[in-house]
Amino acid sequence: MLTKVKTWQLTAGAATLGLALSAVAVASAGPWDSSGQRTAEARRAASQEAGGGADHGRDGRGGRSEEPDAAPSARAVLAAPGGSVPSPAKGALADVLDPLLNDPALGKRRTAAVVDAATGQRLYGKSSGDALTPASTTKLATAVAALSMPGSDHRIDTKTVIEPDSHEVVLVGGGDPTLTARKDAGPNASLRALADAAAKELKGRDTDEITLSYDTSLYSGPLLHPIGPNENIAPVSALMADEARTDDSTSGPAPRESDPAAAAARKFADLLHDRGIRTKGEPGPRRASGDAEKLAKVSSPPVSALVERMLTHSDNDIAEALARQVALATDGAASFEGGGEGIRKELAKLRLPLSGSHFADGSGLDRADKVSADLLTQVLAHAVERERPGLRPVLTGLPVAGFTGTLSKRYTDEADAAGIGLVRAKTGTLTGVNTLAGTVVDADGRLLVFAFMTDGTVNPGQAQAALDRLASTVANCGCR
């Protein structure tokens, strides 16, 4: 039975800016602030931020919003999702979803899975075990892997060291792409704060002139993503400031520095000069010795906050940084290949369905990435489980239909409007590839997770609208 969206659904969706989790699912939705609404989501909804798949979209030079804050901790206060609420019947879901999956806008190949979040049971599937190119929904796997290892509380350090018996200072990158040189650092690590602390320490040593170098040795392998120079991702370096953006943007595509580390070191040299520390010549690369003494350090927001920002904005730079943090934590090489191996290793520990899967990167920009709808839904189902609170940022970081991130400009057609505020999902867009995977509360209040994947699409707008209708139909469905 297909049921029209109920008043309580729309009320709950509006009140929480579309958290897509009913009252029975609050415990699974993750951290809230004292008003019952996550601060990061309030800011997102107020800014009506734009986005769009691999290109992320632009929200204009005049109205860029702040980065999402790390969500505060909160104890579970209500029952787990589902409870006594009935689960949809498999046949009823098939009756409403099968015709929509036959939409020609979905291209040559399409797969799908819908899973009951409370039980983990698959309620609907179409070739759900087949591995397709996932585009940016790869970031769901990257998120779960990073929250598992190195863990949700881990922070990425950027530091300065001084070589013994010298005036040789080295700026050492730890892999934090959110390190910022801007005056308003917000929750991010500040290059200015690092310069403040380093200058103070140097003056305490009666030193006002140094030679500055920079160390990017933490990472290995190529700097450039296989897609080549691209406004969607900077060269992947262990040292960069503001994601190597050369404009004032904080998300979306932008022109990038060709050598992020050298650019960050030059900015740092300028900041030191403003604080009374002169530097000789241009900063150059070198590896800090094991005997170097620490001068100062700054730390990124925790991985939990980085995951939320990555998913909301579909941030490729953060995704590749997190993949390398996974690699380092699992004794792998901090490279594209090592990051992919680390992600797979962590997902295997969770006993997730990895048949046919391949991770060539952490962002999903590489067409060699392959995952199944089964894997995407199980990744989300694991994030819902009460015994895995560390994975909750996977849910809280998902864009909200019609409100935030890469879904803020979607769900505009009357046919899919039922999903506004109720669908939370990660988008994925490459040429010919469109995907959508996330969570939704159906008309009976049951929390479901879904994944819809397509390959061979011709019109991205029509394909996205067709995917949105699929998710909206799940939200609007009693289906018994």
Set out the fold topology:
Layout: H1 7-15, H2 26-29, H3 39-47, H4 90-101, E1 109-116, E2 122-126, E3 131-132, H5 138-151, E4 157-162, E5 168-172, H6 191-204, E6 209-215, H7 260-274, E7 278-279, E8 284-285, E9 293-299, H8 303-313, H9 316-329, H10 336-349, E10 371-372, H11 373-384, H12 393-396, E11 424-430, E12 433-441, E13 447-455, H13 460-475
Parallel strand pairs: 5-6, 6-7, 6-8
Antiparallel strand pairs: 1-2, 1-13, 3-10, 4-5, 4-9, 11-12, 12-13
Helix pairs in contact: 4-13, 5-8, 5-9, 5-10, 5-11, 6-7, 8-9, 9-10
Main attributes?
single chain, 480 residues, alpha+beta, six-stranded mixed sheet, five-stranded antiparallel sheet
The SS-based structural class is alpha+beta
Uncertain residue ranges: 1-80
Assign an overall shape: elongated
Percent of residues in helices comes to 25-40%
Count of helical regions: 13
The count of β-strands is 13
Proportion of β residues? 5-15%
Mean pLDDT: 86
SSE order, one letter for each helix or strand: HHHHEEEHEEHEHEEEHHHEHHEEEH
Please tell me how large the radius of gyration is. Answer: 23 Å
Largest beta-sheet details: 6 strands, mixed
- Alpha-carbon distance between the termini? 6 Å
Account of the protein in words:
The chain is of the alpha+beta class and 480 residues long. Helices cover 31% and strands 15% of the residues. It has helices at residues 7-15, 26-29, 39-47, 90-101, 138-151, 191-204, 260-274, 303-313, 316-329, 336-349, 373-384, 393-396, 460-475, and strands at 109-116, 122-126, 131-132, 157-162, 168-172, 209-215, 278-279, 284-285, 293-299, 371-372, 424-430, 433-441, 447-455. The chain is elongated and about 75 Å long. The termini are close together.
